[in-house]
Amino acid sequence: MKQIKKKLILLMMCLCVTFGGAACDLFDMPSGDDSGVTESNSNNSSSDDCAHSGGTPTCTEKPTCSICGEKYGEALNHAYDVENIAWAWVDDGSSATATITCKNDATHKVEKTATITSEITTSAGCEEMGTTTYTATIEHDGTTYTATKAVQDVAVKQHAYDVENIAWAWVDDGSSATATITCKNDAEHKIEKTATITSEITTPAGCEEMGTTTYTATIEYNETTYTATKAVQNVAATQHDYDVQNIAWAWADDGLSATATITCKNDAEHKIEKTASITSKITTPAGCEEMGTTTYTATIEYDGNTYTATKDIQDIEAKKHAYGAWDSNGDNTHTRVCENDSEHTETLNCNGGAATCQAKAVCVDCGKEYGDYADHDVQWVKDDAEKDVKKCAAEGCNKVEKEFIKTVTAENQELMATNNAAVLDVAGCSAYESVVSIMLGTVSLGTNPSVIDLTQVTDKALHGVQTIILTVKDTEGETHEVSVPVTIVTQMVSTAQELYDITRTATDTTNNAIFGYYKLANDINCTAAPYWAGFNNSVSFDNNEIAGFRGTLDGDGHTLTGFIHANGLFGQVNFGATIKDITFVSTKNTGSATAVIGNASKGTTYENVNFVLYNSDGTKYPKSVIFAQGWANVMKGVTVKVYAGADSTSEYADVGSLFGNWHWIAGTTYADKYENVMVYCASL
Ligand SMILES: [Zn+2]
Ligand SMILES: [Zn+2]
Ligand SMILES: [Zn+2]
Ligand SMILES: [Zn+2]
Ligand SMILES: [Zn+2]
Ligand SMILES: [Zn+2]
Ligand SMILES: [Zn+2]
User: What is the distance in A from the centroid of ligand 4 to the CA of 378?
Assistant: First the structure.
């Protein structure tokens, strides 16, 4: 279009140049936007100069000059007003004609049938038709002109309501709602529907939180039901229902603190915790062994009420027993009693100490005896003459377990040394099992006490008062030595001759000594020759301590009658000799060397001996009438009677001396011992 218009303007410029300025006024240029055109006009207007004038040219006729009446110039060309083309459209835009009218003469018209193009310039809406713009185009004078016509001829579309995206508009409380359905084609297209509302409590109210009601809005559209929901927290909260019947108490182990938790019955998450105040009381005092109990009471206040709970804790230290002293129960136990509680006793076995056979152990705790005696340390003790005793060796113990009498009843049994089958009376000793030996010193007398052979005792020094040792074994095999006192009688003397022989014959020729036990069988009178020699021993014994008579003369109560003569009966009695139970009667003193016993008596025992000295011939007894000299003699129960006449009716007579001289000083080994010695005489 613009291209066309420009060309037209250039053409008109050329015309102006040709016709001069006068004509130019006719060609007022429409105000336009083409500056080039304006410039052309201004540059060429001042130089025109017209000669003819007047007249009016037409499109087809030149003007007639008013001056000259001549046709001059040029006719006007048609000035078709393309600026104001009249377009005649059919209503539907499908065709149009353009009428171009000449400005010079409106009767001059050019009609042209336009060519039509069309374009939808406004699309159809859902309810409004769209517009088609038709363009009519013509060619005129080498230029193209157009006109347009808008025809609302595009059919409407259907609404496309978007049910997928319904907009629900709720009132806040959910009580009503509207649904807006918007057309996808045009958001201006909306359908609004008021929903029907139903509701349901979907979250019940809690104690503190409101519950939720879910409202459901429902609409019907196009035979379809659409719903939307809205949750509104509008259910009033319930109140807590704290369960004070079931308070949970949480105690510290030591009972010194506690918390109470009260839980809501509605919701166990709802809890009230309170720190309790604590009081305590000793409800069970401590015993000696058992701890005492403290009852702690926890107290809380809640909602104007007081709640308590208690907890017993065994937290009081036990006392220790306060035991007193141990006290013996007499049954090897001792008991001590607690001073805190007499029910508390402790009984233990006694202990310590050491038992002996005489005393029980003494308990180190209670100080009383307990247990058993210790076994006796029994041993045979055989140092007693009477009996062997199996007794306890412990010092101070009197325990005798067994005794073995090792003496016999027979105090002194006389056994003849000549008897080879003597019966040894052992009655009185304890029963024994067997005989080990029967010994006299080193001489064995066999093993049968009922038949002992005393002839085995050939040494007459072993005769006399002896002890035979009967060694036996008891039922336990223990050996005991039974002492059997015997008197082994070497010879019974019944005649002066026998006495004569005995006192003159050494049995021990080495020592020139006479051993043996000689016993008078009866009174012997040896006053008649030759037996008066009984008091007249002619054997000469050495004056020592081993020679002479060293045996025993046992008078057995008999009387030996003779008279004093040289060397007496024995000549010499020496150590070990015994003279006993005899009465010596001297009927007279011969007046020579005189003595009853002998010229010496040493270490001899006189026992129960009577000396009776008569004077039948008027000769006075001289000195040393019993023995001439002596020492270490023992005299017991010796009586000497010296008569002046021939019998005991006469008066006592004077006597020189009785026991000779050489008596040692008292207190020495050789001193004589006088005991109950009676001397009857007129003077001594
Ligand atoms: Zn003219
Ligand atoms: Zn014309
Ligand atoms: Zn629509
Ligand atoms: Zn609650
Ligand atoms: Zn106690
Ligand atoms: Zn004790
Ligand atoms: Zn003992």
Answer: 98
Half-sphere exposure of 113 (CA within 13 A, CB side): 3
What pLDDT is attached to residue 51? 80
Cβ atoms 599, 568 nearer than 8 A: yes
Q: Which ligand is nearest to the CA of 185?
A: 3
CA distance 144 to 8: 11
Other CB atoms within a 10 A radius of the CB of residue 501 amount to: 12
Domain boundaries, the chain: 2-44, 52-77, 82-154, 163-235, 244-316, 327-370, 405-484, 490-680
The ligand whose atoms approach the alpha carbon of 321 most closely is 5
Q: d(Cα 105, Cα 79) in Å, to the nearest integer?
A: 8
Q: Closest-lying ligand to the alpha carbon of 390?
A: 7
Residue 447 backbone phi and psi in degrees, to 5 = -125, 10
Q: What is the ipTM of this complex?
A: 0.49
Helix (H, G, I), strand (E, B) or coil at 44: helix
pLDDT in the model for residue 28: 44
Ligand 1 center to 396 CA (angstroms): 208
> Do 453 and 462 touch, CB atoms closer than 8 A?
no
Ligand 3 centre and the CA of 122: distance in Å?
Answer: 15
- In the reported structure, the alpha carbon of residue 297 is separated from the centroid of ligand 5 by a whole-number distance in angstroms of 29
The β-bridge partners of 250 are 259
How far apart, in Å, are the Cα atoms of 529 and each of 211, 591, 607?
A: 176, 17, 29
What is the distance in A from the centroid of ligand 1 to the CA of 65? Answer: 4
Q: How many helices (H) and strands (E) does the chain have?
A: 3, 44
> How far is ligand 3, taken at its centre, from the CA of residue 125, in Å?
6
Starting at the earlier edge strand, list the strands of the sheet with 167-170: 167-170, 177-182, 190-194
Dist CA 421 CA 419 (whole Å): 6
Name the closest ligand to CA 184: 3
Report, as ranges of residue numbers, the positions in the chain whose pLDDT lies below 50: 1-49
Neighbours of ion ligand 2 (CB under 5 A): 59, 78, 102, 104-105, 108
Task: Walk across the sheet containing 548-549 and list its strands.
Answer: 513-514, 548-549, 571-573, 598-602, 627-631
